[in-house]
Predict the 3D structure of the following.
Amino acid sequence: MIQTTNLTFEYFDENKENSNKVLNEINLNIEKGSFTAILGRNGSGKSTLAKHFNAILLPTGGKVYIKNINTADSKKLFEIRRSAGMVFQNPDNQIVAAMVEDEVAFAPENLGVAPSEIRRRVDKCLAAVNMTEFAKSAPSKLSGGQKQRVAIAAVLAMNPEILILDEPTAMLDPMGRSEILNTIKTLNRDNGITVVLITHYMDEAVNADRTIVIDKGEIVIDGSPKEVFKNVELLKSLGLDVPQVTELIYELRKNGINLPDDILTVEDCYNAIIGGIGK
Ligand SMILES: Nc1ncnc2c1ncn2[C@@H]1O[C@H](COP(=O)(O)OP(=O)(O)OP(=O)(O)O)[C@@H](O)[C@H]1O
Ligand SMILES: [Mg+2]
């Protein structure tokens, strides 16, 4: 669905004299229908990478393909942007309309979609993010999590196959975060949307099928959350935390208590500890 071959990106200054290589030879293949989380410390290149997935940025070296379309093909830009929708951190910067349903109708209206089809899409997309009852509300009156769900619905109205979210929960309280995470999981699981989630929250990455850690513009760890979060020392050296459960198990193991090293959920943690004591 998303493929990069030796993707390299350098930011140049105005005179093109100095450059800053932010992505270095990234080779990546993200499968249709998968849920991938991307982690990395501040400035590691996560947003720069995400912006290559819908051609906001084009590689300075190597190639990016979205559904086998080269993002450097300017004739296909529209198709790429429609296939790969992007959601950013701050919902206030993404919402333009004064009423929720107008916000969701905005993109299909611009695409010249027939009014009856727009109505159908608006209803479907608001239902998908569980915001139907707020269709006539003013976005300014909503909570952060609700606004972000409207922003997601507005992207869904383009019928994208890929949803790229760049720290969509960074500005939300715990309640808003869990609303957004549940929405993302449902869209992936029930609607088959390919999800790429950039996040600072390790607990969110646990929900993904695949977790990729980047550092200094390179992929340093890539695997299932269970595989990735085993590397407690390495993750810490990369400026990242581990999920709380992983941290607890790590400390217990360090103190000689025999527990598996790939536990991620509170439930599994509970069972392992109780089971361990019972033995
Ligand atoms: N427009 C720009 N011009 C020049 N350099 C930039 C630009 N945007 C980002 N950078 C630099 O590129 C590097 C990677 O930035 P990027 O925003 O991709 O990191 P990030 O992993 O998303 O960080 P964060 O966790 O803070 O969002 C940083 O060193 C940053 O300073
Ligand atoms: Mg970023």
